[in-house]
Amino acid sequence: MTPSIVFSLLSLLLVSTCGYVLPLEEGFISGVISDKGLEYAKELLVEKGIGSIEMLQLPEIENSAQVPFVGNAKVVLSDITIKDVQVNSSSVKIGESGVVLVVSGATANLSMRWRYSCSTWLIPIGISDSGNASVKVTGMQVGLTVNLRNQEGSLKLTLLDYGCYVRDLSIKLEGGASWLYQLLVDAFEGNIASAVEDGISEKVKEGMVNLDNLLQSLPKQISLDKTSALNVSFVGNPVLSNSSIAMAINGLFTGKNEVSVPQGYEKGLKISSACGGLPKMIKVSIHEDVFNSASLVYYNCNSSCCSCAQADKMQLIVDELPDQAILNTAEWRFIVPQLYKRYPNDDMQLNISVSSPPVIQVTYQDIDATIFVDITIDVLEDGEVIPVACISVEISASCAVEIVGNNIGSRFRLQKFSTYLKWSKIGKLHMYLIQSLTSSVLKTFILPYLNFKLKRGLPLPIINGFGFQNANILYTQPWIAVCSDVSFIGDYYIGQQSGYVS
C-alpha cells in the first residue's frame, strides 16, 4: 500500500455529506461523507493500490539448505518483483477509533532470479547453477487503521495499526536441473512470504508519514484576490461514526492583512445532513455568514482603506448610458431646473458606491440579498468633478446558485428597489421623475457588474485531483448545501503540489 494509494482514499475523506448532524460551533463550512462516498473511495483505493504495488521490488534473500547427496548449498534469490495483483474483496469501515481499510483474498505473482553454489568432499570442485522462478501468492491481506485529529487548524494523521499477511504461496523454477533445485527453493517459502509482508507494510508506514506531512502542509487560507482570503483552517476534530466522517472548516472571509476573522456571527445552530433523498457521495454545507463575511471584507476595504489595491470593488463610475442624453444637464432642465440653470449643457457622470455591507440571507428557495447603494450625481465642468446630489437606493435581489467546476457561483436577479434623496446642492429632487434613470442604471450597470464579480464563485473545499459531478443545490435556512458525487480527475499525490482547489 503506497503513499498514492492511501492518499487517494483519504483525500476524499477530507471533503465533507449525508447522514450526520454537525454543530455550527465546528465551522461555517462543514459536511460529512456518505456510504456511497466511502464505497467510491474504497474502489479508487483498490484501483490505485494495484497499480502502485505492482512492480514493487523486494530485498534480496540469501539462505542455505542441506541437500541429500549434494551437501550444504548457498541459495540467493534476487530481483524479486511483485506483479499482476488481483483483489478478491475489500472493505472500509469507520469507527470511533479511526478509519479501517482492509483488502483480503488478494493474489499476486512474483518474478525472481535464483542462483546456488555448493561443494562437498565428494565433489571438491564447486558447482553452481542459476535460473528464473515464478511465485504465486494467495490469500494475501493488507490492512491499516488511521485516525485524524485537528492540530492547530491542520489535520494530523496517526497510523494506529497496519500490516500485511500472506497465507500461502507456491514456487515454480525455470532453468537448470529444476527438479532438484525445487527442494532448495521450497525451504524459502517463509522467507519470501516475510519479504512480501515486510515490503508492503513498510510502504504503508512510509505512505502514512508522507501523507501526514502533506496534510500538515495544506493551506489554512486561500488567497482569492488582492483584497480577500478564505479561512480554510480546520476547526474541531473530525467526527467518526459507524457510517460517516464529518469535518468542518472555519470558512469565513478575511481581509488580506487581517489576522483574525470577522466577529459577531450567530452560532449554536445545527445543520441538517439530509440530501433530500438523493444518493450522493458528499454534502458540503455553507452558512449564510460565509457570504456576509465576504460582503463585510469588501465593504471595509472600499470604505476605509483608501490605499487598498482593490478599493474599487464596490465602487463604479458610469459615464455612458444607452440613452446618453440623460448624462447631460440639458436633459434635466424640466426635472431639476436649478441644475440646468447652474450648470447649463454640462456633461454628468454617476458615482455608484455601496453604502453599507450587503446583507445575505439563505431562504428555503434561494438566496436573498439586500444591497444598499448611493448614486452620486457629478457634474463635469472645465475638467472639475462637482458632486451635486446623492440618491440612496435599497435593492432587493434574489440569487440563483450553481456549481461551476469546483466553485459555487451565483447570479443576482432584481426583485424590487426603492429610492430616496440623501442630500442635494441643487434643491429638491422629485424622486418619481428619476425612477427610470435609477432602473436603467441598476439593470445596465449595477447588477451586471455584481454578476460579473460573482461569476468566478466561491471555491469549495476539495482536494486537488477531485471534482464535483452531478451536483444538486439544496436550501435549508440558513444553510446552502451542495450534494454531489465526486470524480477523480487527475494525479496530485505525494511529491507534487497539492492543496485545496481555488
Automatic annotation (TrEMBL):
GO molecular function annotation: lipid binding
UniProt signal peptide: 1-19
SMART domains on file: BPI1, BPI2
GO CC entries: extracellular space
Positions of the Lipid-binding serum glycoprotein C-terminal domain: 276-484
KW Glycoprotein (keyword) present: yes
Record domain Lipid-binding serum glycoprotein N-terminal: where: 33-258
Keyword set, alphabetical order: Glycoprotein, Signal
Similarity comment: Belongs to the BPI/LBP/Plunc superfamily. BPI/LBP (TC 1.C.40) family.
Protein name per UniProt: BPI/LBP family protein
Species name: Mucuna pruriens
